[in-house]
């Protein structure tokens, strides 16, 4: 995401907020509620996480924020360090998600993998300020 | 007094000439090698050149405002260059220097604020730091404080100690900041301290051609000349002079064996020649010219050769194309 894409993203978020729903993600609900005058919450049409997608044992699901459409799913874990990275290095191929790139780091790890329809997604494990680890599944981005 | 001044001036000129001929390790900016040998290693994250929180300036000059990791580029507040590598991979000194600090007491994969490292002081005033190493007990530290090291020398093995999310090497370059009165991280890529772009190993080569790709026939006792060319696919310039990057053709299988085909022009029994040119930068082709003397008894032979960063590191023989010369010595 470069400097020039930021205004487009902001515009997208504003447009999305303008089409806000009453809390569901169904496109038809979204369309009807956008005219209902209900308080804006979210119009993000989020890519669903496939059933059976591997989840780090002990990780707690966290509702993804509304302003991040590229985010597919999110968890929190108290297993800091390599636990999430090592888990997904093994679990993704075992679940038929071929890995296309490994990017370990000091306070963040990113794994790019391919989903059955050919798209590339990312698993990102990132250290939070409170010492826990945020684990995210995202659409691929540079 | 005049003679003394002349001698002093001549000495300075000689030293300058030596610096220039040796590749200018003081003056040039291509004086650091990548800190590993494995040709498959590529960078996962570089230095964040913008220390502002949630604003990242990566090594290509692109700015990101999201605080998210960008693979191959940067993550927020990162002070070094991360290289993914399997646990216990070889880690090499990026430049000649002296080990000034190390830690090897943490477990190879022990997570925490502190991890195992080696820190080297270099003659140009900079320091390099090799972080997340394996424990001393696990072979993670191959040097000691006060030890002199050469560029390319193995200093330890990688691990995942300290703040580590997946096994990798964190390589950091530090420069003295008078304002801060302390060493501060700098970006080796911004300063073009490498001879190359990220991901390349220091010494690598690919076969191009040779004077006679077939069998060399040598009359017993006679000497013929042979040359072979390799493309420099590594990160460092090959040099005829100096120590860092001085590149030689040497006998192989077994490594550095005394050859029966040694000609009078060989520097050593196991080394036919150094690279012909004073400098062969990355991507350029370097030629190695040498004699072959038909000393052995008449018969068929083959002799393998590999390249060596002289005194430091052998090239990958397979990537060199498995180079050898079929030789027939005739009566």
Query: Any idea what the radius of gyration of chain A is?
Result: 17 Å
* CATH top level label of the largest domain in chain B: Mainly Beta
Give average pLDDT of chain A, whole number.
77
What letter string, H or E per element, gives the SSE order of chain B? Answer: HEEEEEEEEEEEEEEEEEEEEEE
CATH topology value of the largest domain in chain A:
TATA-Binding Protein
> What structural class do the secondary elements of chain A suggest?
alpha+beta
- Multimeric state: heterodimer
Structural domains of chain B: how many: 2
Q: What structural category arises from helix and sheet content of chain B?
A: mainly beta
- Termini separation of chain A comes to 7 Å
| CATH architecture classification name of the largest domain in chain B | Distorted Sandwich
The CATH superfamily title of the largest domain in chain A: Kinase associated domain 1, KA1
- Extended strand count of chain B: 22
How large is the count of helical segments of chain A? 3
CATH architecture of the largest domain in chain A: 2-Layer Sandwich
Average pLDDT value of chain B?
85
Question: If you had to describe this structure to a student in words, what would you say it looks like?
Answer:
The complex is a heterodimer of chains A (142) and B (331). Chain A is an alpha+beta fold and 142 residues long. Chain A has two domains: 1-45, no CATH class; 60-139, Kinase associated domain 1, KA1 (TATA-Binding Protein, 2-Layer Sandwich), CATH 3.30.310. Chain A is 23% helix and 25% strand. Chain A has three helices and six strands, in the order H-H-E-E-H-E-E-E-E. Chain A has helices spanning 6-18, 27-33, 83-94; strands at residues 60-61, 71-77, 99-103, 108-114, 120-127, 133-139. A six-stranded antiparallel β-sheet of chain A has the order 1-2-6-5-4-3, with helices on one face. The radius of gyration of chain A is 17 Å and the shape is globular. In chain A, 28% of the residues are buried. Chain B is mostly beta strands. Chain B folds into two domains: 26-45 and 80-186, Glucose Permease (Domain IIA), CATH 2.70.70.10; 205-330, Sandwich (Immunoglobulin-like). Helix content of chain B is 6%, strand content 34%. In chain B, the strands form six sheets. In chain B, strands 3, 5, 6, 7, 8, 10 and 11 form a seven-stranded antiparallel β-sheet that branches. In chain B, a hairpin with a 4-residue loop joins strand 10 and strand 11 (182-186). Chain B is elongated and about 75 Å long. Chains A and B meet through helix 3, strand 3, strand 4 and strand 5 of A and strand 2 of B.
